[in-house]
């Protein structure tokens, strides 16, 4: 009987915690649509930099000038070798994949995300809102 | 008698720290946890988001509860059932050949492969089982002592 009472107390405490999470927007409400998933975009504040597999979809010149550590360079031009490198990285340590682009070619990066989702099934793949400009700030 | 008390305290402390740590990593990166929940391909949509909301708090409270006299027994049972559920989930993912992200302790707790995952959770489950067993013995002894 006492154990049940303790479990009930834990349930109440958990419910209070969930209420706090919802009020302070620490966690999205379960009944709300998952907008960031629907449009395939994710903002930099929602991403923890060290737990993401980055994909740089900018030109080879831009990539050579500077990119995030560990970012895989992947464009339409190097699709075959780039996807292979990405797959190897992801299989070694499966984690969220985020594609970033530059302002000039962001529509290309969204198409890349669509293609990637077909190629790397099972992975969570997003394109970064604001692209490289946000990261390099 | 005294050694049993020490073992109980060590187990409560270890399990408590593990669960508080697990909760903290989920609070720190809810998005990664959401991705991990989705990777199990068991639940989705409202149910998955419900787990992302509830589980970190439940883990936090049972982790703290293990150290609080008025909550320790209930917490030990919840921990036991949670661990059993986690092992069942991992077994199911392994059986289906899924390449999952554990989601247990965030990026810091990454383990390589299912073998390590099963070993860790089995050890924790063993610890929780011993703790519950010792708590039952202690409770019976207290009751017997009180009736004399």
The main sheet of chain A comes to: 5 strands, parallel
Q: Considering DSSP H and I runs of 4 or more, what fraction of the residues of chain A is helical? A: 40-55%
Number of helices of chain A: 6
Question: What's the domain count of chain A?
Answer: 2
Named CATH architecture of the largest domain in chain A: 3-Layer(aba) Sandwich
Shape of chain A: elongated
The CATH superfamily label of the largest domain in chain A reads: Rhodanese-like domain
What would you call the structural class of chain A?
alpha/beta
Write down the secondary-structure element order of chain A: HHEEHEHEHEH
Name the structural class of chain B: mainly alpha
Q: How many β strands of chain B by DSSP? A: 0
Succession of helices and strands of chain B: HHHHH
Number of domains of chain B: 1
Beta-strand fraction estimate of chain B: under 5%
Q: Report the count of strand segments of chain A.
A: 5
Oligomer: heterodimer
What profile does the largest beta sheet of chain B have? none
Strand order of the largest sheet of chain A: 1-5-4-2-3
Task: Indicate the CATH topology of the largest domain in chain A.
Answer: Oxidized Rhodanese, domain 1
Helix percentage of chain B: over 70%
